[in-house]
Amino acid sequence: MDRNLPLNLARVTEAAALASAKFLGRGDKNAADQAAVDAMRRMFDTVNIDGVVVIGEGEMDEAPMLYIGEQIGIAGPHDLKVDIAVDPLDGTRSVANGLPNAISVVAIAPRGCLLHAPDTYMNKIAVGPKAKGVVNINNSVEENIRNVAKALGKDVSEVTVTILDRPRHEKLVEEVRKAGARIKMFSDGDVLAAINTCFSYTGVDILMGIGGAPEGVIAAAALKCLGGEFQGVLHPVTEDQRRRCLEMGADLNKVYTVDDLVKGDEVVFAATGVSHGELLQGVKYLEKDMATTHTLVLRAETGTIRFIEAIHKLDKKPEYAK
Ligand code: VTB
């Protein structure tokens, strides 16, 4: 995989972040999402790949851009055939409501390497590299927390589990409390929450709970690069979702590991903060016509972790002006 591709991907997520951050707190999640999609799609037209979207904005009839199956990139005969997973704005509600942890995110791997996840829920567990190998999504919550505590050299009371704030997690919250660990709830964005487990300074040790399956593939791509662990079990809630999972050949009892979700070692990943978070700063508007972005860029082959801070001159990029 071209080693400059990750840096080009940073341009793609920066563009989407800059475009959607203008909608922070304006109460319009669709406008924020549309701006991110348009900007991301446009920037992809500058990237030398022969790409096909496998995780995107929906099926072709639901989404005019970045739909599943869309061919993107400007490929020459020698450019790599790749699978693309995008979430132009993970946390549309967060942006609309002026809340933290919204990101724009892209993962790319050679063709056939990213799982075509059905658009349903997935029960997930994620931990950072130090706790790799000690969790099992089929174990009890208490056992997983105890094993992570041991691996991190912490007391159980010092372990923090991060959980998506949804009514469906009431029982999980109870179990974590009973086990004696701390909880950090978040309102949206479990891709970033999974990544946070790989950086101890975010204060988060384990992600647990049910989120979107497509987001699970994107999180697994990042955790493969970061050396963390991710496990997911598909969790369709309606008969229709169940049927779709089976039609796509998915196994509802299988524990999908990082290697099932993202094959091989050639995955690259980029995420730019839209609103502020523990790991990535959101887009900040400085003096007139200036904005900053903060981007995480990862490459599994070498394991390099890059944080890129960029200052954008908005008078030269009028499409992102305030
Ligand atoms: C989660 C969350 C995402 O979808 O995956 C969630 O992390 C799952 O769906 O940011 P519900 O909102 O129905 O719980 C998002 O909120 C949006 O993709």
Looking at CATH, the homologous superfamily of the largest domain is Fructose-1,6-Bisphosphatase, subunit A, domain 1
Could you say what the CATH topology of the largest domain is called?
Fructose-1,6-Bisphosphatase, Chain A, domain 1
Q: Tell me the overall shape.
A: globular
Distance between the termini: 36 Å
Tell me about the largest β-sheet.
8 strands, mixed
CATH architecture of the largest domain: 2-Layer Sandwich
- Low-pLDDT segments: none
Average of the residue pLDDT scores: 96
Which structural class do the helices and strands define? alpha+beta
What percent of the residues sit in helical stretches (DSSP H or I)?
25-40%
Our Rg estimate from Cα atoms comes to 19 Å
What ligand molecules are bound, each kind once? 7-O-phosphono-alpha-L-galacto-hept-2-ulopyranose
What is the total domain count?
2
In terms of DSSP E residues, the strand content is 25-35%
Number of strands: 14
CATH class of the largest domain: Alpha Beta
- Please trace the helix and strand order, writing H or E for each element: HHEEEHEEHEHEHEHEHEHEEEE
